[in-house]
Amino acid sequence: MTQSDLVETMATAHQLEVEFTQAGDLGLTGPDSVSDSSRETRSPEAWAEALRALDAAFEDAAPAEIALAVFAVFAARLSENRVAVLALAQVNPDGQDSGVFEAGLTAEKTFAEVLSEVTRSGFGAATGLSGLPELPAGAPLPFLVSAGSRSAQEIVAALELQISADGSLTLVHPASLETGLLDLLFERLTALAAGLANNPATPLVHQPIMSADERKTVVETWNATDRHYGYHGGLVAMMERAAAATPDHPALIFKEATLSYAEFNARVNRLARLLREKGVGPDRFVALFMDRSLEMVIGLWATIKAGGAYVPLNTEDPSGRLTEIIEDCKPVAVLTQAHLADKIETDVAEVIVLPEGGDAAPEFETGNLGLEIAPGDLAYMIYTSGSTGKPKGVIVEHEAIHNRVVWMHEEYGLDPEDRVLQKTPYTFDVSVWEFLWPFAVGSTLVVAIPGGHMSIRYLKREIKQSGVTHLHFVPSMLRLFLLAPSLDELQIKKLFCSGEALGFDLVQAFYEKASDSVEVHNLYGPTEAAVDVSYFACPRTSGDHSIPIGKPVTNTGLYVLDEYDQPVPVGVPGELHIGGVQLARGYWNRDDLTAERFIPCPVEDAPHRRLYRTGDLAYFRPDGEIMYLGRNDFQVKISGVRIELGEIEAAIRSAEGIRDVVVVAEENQGQKSLVAYVVAEAAGDAAAAAIKAAVAERCPPFYVPQDVRFLAEMPLTVSGKINRKLLKDQPRL
Q1: CATH code at 143?
Q2: Among 307, 372, 466, 508, which one is most buried in terms of CB atoms within 10 A?
Q3: If we measure between CA atoms, which residue out of 57, 52, 51 comes closest to residue 199?
Q4: Are 709 and 732 within 8 A, CB to CB?
Q5: pLDDT digits (tens, 9 = 90+) for 592-639
Q6: Which of 192, 236, 188, 190 is nearest to 214 (CA)?
Q7: What is the pLDDT of residues 298-316, one digit of tens each?
Q8: Is residue 709 a part of any domain in this protein?
Q9: Residue 630 falls within a domain, yes or no?
């Protein structure tokens, strides 16, 4: 069977509304998984031993029935909707029987129930199959399970699992299928059978679907990141040591103004003393309501050095939202600028207007305050959008952000002569390391002008003139930045990307235009875990066109769990969970939401005892790198079929010439359909057909978008992320 035959097979199954279990659901994936030649692989002795033990626990069932039940449970556990739909066939004295067998899982379902369903199907019995829906007439199948070695060939299937009377398995498959994948399949089936034999009454959703060795790898080995970073006063002490060591070194640059470490530290200390006088201390908030400026950075650091936690407020937010946030966090003070003071319409907190340059309290002493900033004290709170419409404040402690900054410096390093560009809006968490990292290690922060982060021409000029060496881009903004000429003139050493899925073509396009010494690093993390928790160095050349989000940073763990909080095997999608020192304390004044998202670790052998549910879908690659698939709230149902939009986007990004893509489900006259919005090197019918073919090769047929719409560029939010709400309004190519 050729690849085109397989695509036709999938499409036929979809038209008949039968979602058969497929090879990819079982981990049997690969570019050459279908070919005209085939071979057979038989189950190992370990499978036979596990089956014998299971047979002893269920003496009334035949070994072939037990084997099919184990396989059905395994297929259901790995499927997206926890249902296995298997095409069955067997040869009887009166001819060949066939039918559709379905096994679904629930939270309490046990093996005995599935085995009873198999027995009622008549699989392996002399009387033949009974009571099963008929197979689609003449339709080639992606996967077939047969009793014994079939002699009739009326049913065409890409792969076939033959179950002998003694329960042994023979998989008939394309010769090009990797041996390692086959070994892994039988290893996992054996682990499940052994688990069922040991604990037959345990619900199926809690039975093992990987070997003890594989489980140890994904749960323990890949999360063995512990390392002692001495706190020693945290980031405040680090900054003060840098200021003492190099007082004349430039610390902060904004427009034409440059502050040395001595002057920067002095202004910060004077303002910090003023804030202390106002009542700022541990776990007390200071709201910042400022445009990018010297005073913004001074106000932020002064809040931290006063022992408080800063709360950034968006100067473009409507007054109602500003009032809602201020009244929620009840800050001791609001630091602002003269041109913004009138926008603050609540008297909950004292408003302090900082003069240009941020030297708000010249009458106070300039020396360090000598306060003890404890690891568990709050460092900042950033408000994010809430599903109910009410913004929620994420509160992050000093130990968490200290770990993040120290790890980043250890991994990437900043020299005294390096310069970091601060251009991320301070209401987004990426800005946190921009503000803190350079000061903690004695480098220089260059602050972009207000609105400058959205101007490619300005950014290129500022990077060149100020000698910026380290900076961050959301992938959507990086794509626009590539339009700037002569990027190879810039002195960029390291470029960091996060906030959206990073495409291989975008990385390669940047490498082609930038200097030979620049490095691109893909970072991932939610606000609830101190900015970033995983990292990946993007290679300049690679045969693999995917960009993972990488492996966990130091003192952090990453777990991929199913909806029953069970670890999933390598290659199987699940919800990404985060553990470790970088977890936020929770949500301010939202104990219910904190308890919902920050949970006691349900994985007993995990090295972390508290986890954060990210809501992001991901899976482990065999090398331990994690692939991001998208949000689980970008999951849609069309005609009753659950579809992960991120999986479709990942498939489209694998096609040549794709710069950016967003897939949405749009409704027209009550009918939902998939639409792909694409920025690509080429547009038109041929390009759309190639995109659909790329999805068909990697995903089920019902994942193929009905419509592909080409755009010149993606609409962006103020933070540089794609604005999905405006996609339909964009002019099309």
Answers
A1: 3.30.559.30
A2: 307
A3: 57
A4: yes
A5: 999 999 999 999 999 999 999 999 999 999 999 999 998 887 766 565
A6: 188
A7: 999 999 999 999 999 999 8
A8: yes
A9: no
